Amino acid sequence: MLSWLEALIILLVLTNFALLGSSRLASLIRLVALQGMLLGIITIASQPGAASARIYILALGNIATKCLLFPWLFYRAVKEVNIRREVEPYVGYNLSLLAGVISFGLSLWLGDRLPFPTKAFSDLAVPTVFFMLWVGLLLIISRNKAITQVVGYLVMENGIYLFGISFVEAAPLFVELGVLLDVIVGVFIMGIIIHQIDRQFDTLHVGQLANLKD
Amino acid sequence: MAGPHFLLWSELCFLCAALICCFASSNARLASIVGAAGSIIGCVLGLLSATSMLSMGTSFTLNLPCTIPLASLHFKVDALSALFLILIDGLSLLFTLYGVSYLYEYRSKRSLGGPWCAFNLLVASMGVVVTSQNGVLFLIGWELMALSSFFLVMFEGDSNKGRDVGITYLIATHLGTLFLLVMFILMAVSSGSFEFDAFRTHQPSRTLLTTLFLCAVIGFGTKAGLMPFHVWLPEAHPAAPSHVSALMSGVMIKTGIYGILRLISLAGMPPLWWGWLLIGMGFVSAVGGVLFALAQHDLKKLLAYHSVENIGIIVLGIGLGVLGLGSGSPPLALTGFLGALLHVINHGIFKGLLFLGAGAIFRATGTRQLDELGGLLKKMPATGYCFLIGALAISGLPPLNGFVSEFLIYIGSFRGGIELAQPSNLFCFIIILGLTLIGGLACACFSKAFGIVFLGEPRQAVSSSHTLPPAMKWPMIILAGLCIAIGVFPVPIVRFLLPCASQIFPVQQPEVPFSAMTSTLNLLTHITATSLILLLLIFFIFRLRRLFLGNRKVTSEVTWDCGYAKPTPRMQYTASSFAQSILQLFQPFLPSHKALSRSLTYFPGSESISFSSHTPDHFQQSFYWPLFHWVDKRFSILRRFQHGKMQVYVLFIAAALIALLIWQLGAVQ
Predict the structure, then answer these.
(1) pLDDT tens digits, B221-259
(2) CA-CA 20 to 30 A from B660: which of B114, B332, B570, B631?
(3) Do B647 and A212 touch (CB under 8 A)?
(4) ipTM of this predicted complex?
(5) Where are the domains of chain B?
(6) Domain total for chain A?
(7) How many degrees, rounded to 5, is the angle at CA A9 between CA A45 and CA A18?
């Protein structure tokens, strides 16, 4: 039986594939924003019965940061450095999609094998968590623009967030807040670093960082 | 009982002072005051704690709540710990006093907060090492000790040489710690806990004991500076400020000795070959150390090599004690351990004194090169006479303390040579042989050091404005006084050491034969008598000299120079020429590099003729360098993984993560 909650999760999975397949930075940013929105809705929808105020705050906070604040910061960064698209990624888009399919299979297997003390709200939740982690890592590994990398980190964070709300009774609120804080700091630092790399090397190609090794 | 409280407060005192110094680094005055005050109060409290234990005669424990996994804050002060605690805190107290004025000279050039912070941490961590009863706690203390002393060695780390020295020290000490880590983990695996008490009551297998002992010899031997693990020591000790050199050489390396003794006390009855191995290594260290010392031109490096030598003597004593234990002769074991422990104390005293003296010389002249010094006895009489007493003591001459401890080891070796069965008694003869050889060579070496530095004509202009401040003078005088006191009255200190030495005996040896020591103690009373006679004789000769010279006019003239018109101080015997005849004898063991350029003209100018000799460390040149080069070559493949591409680093992490997940989840269910 496919409930509409599971449909939302599948939509989330599809956004990940779209992330792997798109080269334009603007569409990447839109897709992560969409992920943030979906996660916010899933937060509320995953609660059986009436959701508490805590859940609403969590959902709204999530949407506010990941759907509005971070995309806005990203847009600004993109506009500032005037880059439109990812050029010559280390791993091509078709290959990335293929790797995505393989990692989705791996995630399904892992989600099946990994024992949890309590059950998640949906059987798809845990595999999706793993899938988002792999996609985030894949983006970081295979792309060479700093902004895409930050998007990768954000996708990973989204995965961790999904993990948190899957076990929202078990995970205390401050852990979630901690993760969120982490990512805010991460995004700000990345924003600064993007700016600095751009100024220093005149490019956002992170391969330039290899010059810094000893 | 107040012992545990004193111990706790002493450690807290060091730590607080270290913390404050950390933040007061810009204010030299504040850092000096807080660092010294913390160290002095901490040392006094530590001394109180140790003496309260020794006066009560029962050990005490201190258990604090602790949340570090596997560790427990379990301290115990028994007689052995108390002895080392007295050594650490007593000497640190004097070195702190000295260090206040010594370091204050540097206030305009360097921040003093760091050195004082590290100094306090070093003293505190040594206290932790000798009192901890838990393997993890011990290692934490050990690591803290290594790091704080590393920062002190890096005091002059802004030069290339200083940095290399520091890195060498860091690598060496961590290689040693690696073996200790293995040792403690093996102990914990076999006994089920990192607590020492658990291991004490546990009966480990023979092979495990062998492994533990070898790990301990390498790990603790590296810290103690036992040859061939000593290469860091002659580099690192001279690099630190002088009071820290004194602390490292006199005290810190003794924690390695403490470790070996503690392991012997935990391990049960040791097999005989432990003793053979220790005696062999002690012999190599002692003779090798003194030979390399003889070839040095740098005063502090010379002293550092003498630390290797003295650690060798201490290990000879321990080896003798182990032979006694292993062959079931407790009186022999007691004599050996007594000699070793007494030498631990004595070496701390006279080596501390000599390093403080070297610091005073460096402060006045700005050099440590023997060949640039000379005639300092007239300019710095206090330093000179203190240094002379230290030099006589380290050479093992009566009536000073170095003689007494070597004498105890001699007695034990003769007794062992007579009592023990075939292979072991040969090792006793090796000890005797070694001690005689060392005694002679050490005398030669310190005749050289004292003669070149303090006698003769000054080779370099010494600024006479450098009068020694009392805070630097008095620690040296106190140490020199201790050298004489222990040398003349050894019986009370040996009696005081008896319970400490018996603490090394394993639990299986319930009765320690104090009564068997009466004959040895009687011999020591003879030393007192002889020494007093000797001192009286010296006094008498001085009186006689004064009597004869009192009403005559004394003038100083140039030595007869065979009619040469313009003698200069550079024509005096140099350090290398003094030692040359002895070094020639040992040429096969000491590969000296000599560079001589001769001039064939009748009137050679200063440019055309030169001679320099340099004796590199054998082990470093022909063992460690090739080894590390080989490792470097083999492992340079790994450099390929360090290419700076961030994406590939993340790929490694992701691959490792996935592999681990698959491995772990593939196994369950």
Answers:
(1) 999 888 888 888 888 888 888 889 999 988 999 999 999
(2) B631
(3) no
(4) 0.78
(5) 271-497, 622-667
(6) 1
(7) 140
